[in-house]
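quick one
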Amino acid sequence: MLLSRNLVFRALSRKCGTHSYATAANAVNIVEVGPRDGLQNEKGVIPVSVKAELVTRLGRAGVKIIEAGSFVSPKWVPQMAGTADVLAQAERFPDVRYPVLVPNQKGLDAVTTLLAKHPASPPLTDEISIFTAATDAFTRANLNTTTAESLERLAPVAKAALDQGLRVRGYVSVVIACPYSGQVDYARVRDIAKALIDMGCYEVSLGDTVGMGTPTQVSEMLEEVKKSIPVEKLAGHPWITAFAPSTLPSAGLGGCPYSPGATGNVATEDVLYALQGSQYHVAGTAHGNGTIDLDKMVDIGWWISEQLGRESTSRAGRAIRARRLQEREREVKAKL
Ligand SMILES: CC(C)(COP(=O)([O-])OP(=O)([O-])OC[C@H]1O[C@@H](n2cnc3c(N)ncnc32)[C@H](O)[C@@H]1OP(=O)([O-])[O-])[C@@H](O)C(=O)NCCC(=O)NCCSC(=O)C[C@@](C)(O)CC(=O)[O-]
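structure w/ 3-hydroxy-3-methylglutaryl-coenzyme A:
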């Protein structure tokens, strides 16, 4: 699956966060963005039933935060059409959150309509993610406006969402380099992230959208952003090379359709695998042992990849599958 595009930095801060899912020291929050970021860039049409099943399977595997889709213009991102039906059809688990991406008031209105139509408890979603970018060129390509104008548009959307009891999370894209305008000014990243926090985002995910950042660049950018925002309110997406915690999709799928040259995401399975035996662990999840089930995530990664007509790019996913096949062959031979 598309693992984490955003690892949350609470583990690094060694403090509990302000969320209801506050984490202990060394705990990593994983925001699984497979159903949204992982699928939004696909060429073919993905049936709603497949998208809903993906959300269901992730919940069963113990993922605690699943970004289930987006309420953007279907003309801009056709793959995200039907997100309301995905939310309505997916089997939901009471301790799992299902945030959705919202670009404007129209997107929030669609969420409000959905919640009125399906008055479930807990609600189908209780969180929106709003997004902008560190450069005007990227914001123009992705949202058809400038960064400053996007922030102006998003402020009332965030306020309206908070007023109706929704949580609001923020994304800043291209925090290191922009595919259209090159190296990014980290002070600008800091100011934009701060603007999102000031409008009520409980956390801001910083995206190296094209995946060009080196660990040194990511550290420098973070040092700048930390001047205005405490680290426990930051998440990373998808620069796992530099930091432990993040927002990821399974099977390494995905990316922003308006980010030419992006090479896909770090797979959730790979991060789960890397965390094994490290000083970090996944924050408390649906499965009381505080872990996401790696084997189930590998299965989900292969399943969704098959649905999309490709192979999983997750290294851990491929290795674990190869090991399973070998074990099965050995068992068959032993029976002969
Ligand atoms: C923001 C807009 C809508 C502006 O697009 P626009 O064309 O400027 O908007 P508009 O207000 O002029 O409306 C144009 C048409 O879109 C419709 N429309 C307008 N809004 C909506 C809506 N919410 N839902 C459904 N329909 C909508 C609207 O009704 C109208 O339809 P028409 O009259 O032509 O039939 C467009 O640019 C858009 O949808 N952009 C989203 C692009 C996107 O989803 N990108 C991928 C997600 S971001 C990402 O992946 C990065 C991230 C978050 O992962 C972090 C990282 O990786 O760095």
